[in-house]
Amino acid sequence: MTEADNDCTSCVDDFYLSGTDCLPCHPGCNVCGDATDSNCTECNDGYYLDGTTCVICKHPCVNCLSDTRCLSCVTGTNRGLAPDCHCNDTFYDNGTDGDCV
């Protein structure tokens, strides 16, 4: 941004350049080409990139690489680790706080 005219020439993450203005990306997009949900090139935590769309990670994933591959899991008792985050044998997800009971 130049001080004389307040015109942007580049933008920080979560924003894209539109003319000389920095406008917000679609929620979930960290780096984008415009405000649509289908022009993302990098996603925020809690989302994964599917083509050019950022898709929210499904429970029990906190961060993920895809719909079925977790990088980190919700914190809870009796739960296995990433990449699957399944409940340990003989336990089931209570669906509320990440605990397997």
Describe this structure in words.
This protein has 101 residues and is mainly β. It has strands at residues 15-18, 21-24, 29-32, 40-43, 47-50, 53-56, 61-64, 70-73. The chain is built from no helices and 8 strands. The strands form 4 sheets. Strands 1-2 form a two-stranded antiparallel ribbon. Strands 3-4 form a two-stranded antiparallel sheet. A hairpin with a 7-residue loop joins strand 3 (29-32) and strand 4 (40-43).
- Distance separating the two termini: 54 Å
Query: Could you say which structural class the secondary elements and strand pairing correspond to?
Result: mainly beta
Number of strands: 8
Largest sheet: 2 strands, antiparallel
Order of helices and strands: EEEEEEEE
- Arithmetic mean pLDDT: 86
Widest sheet, order of strands: 1-2
* Strand percentage: 25-35%
Number of helices: 0
How many domains make up the coordinates?
Answer: 2
Unreliably modeled segments = none
Work out the helicity level: under 10%
Quick recap:
This protein has 101 residues and is an all-beta fold. 0% of the residues lie in helices and 32% in strands.
Which helices and strands occur, and which strands form pairs?
Layout: E1 15-18, E2 21-24, E3 29-32, E4 40-43, E5 47-50, E6 53-56, E7 61-64, E8 70-73
Antiparallel strand pairs: 1-2, 3-4, 5-6, 7-8
Task: Offer a few descriptive terms.
0% helix, mainly beta, two-stranded antiparallel ribbon, two-stranded antiparallel sheet, 2 domains, 101 residues
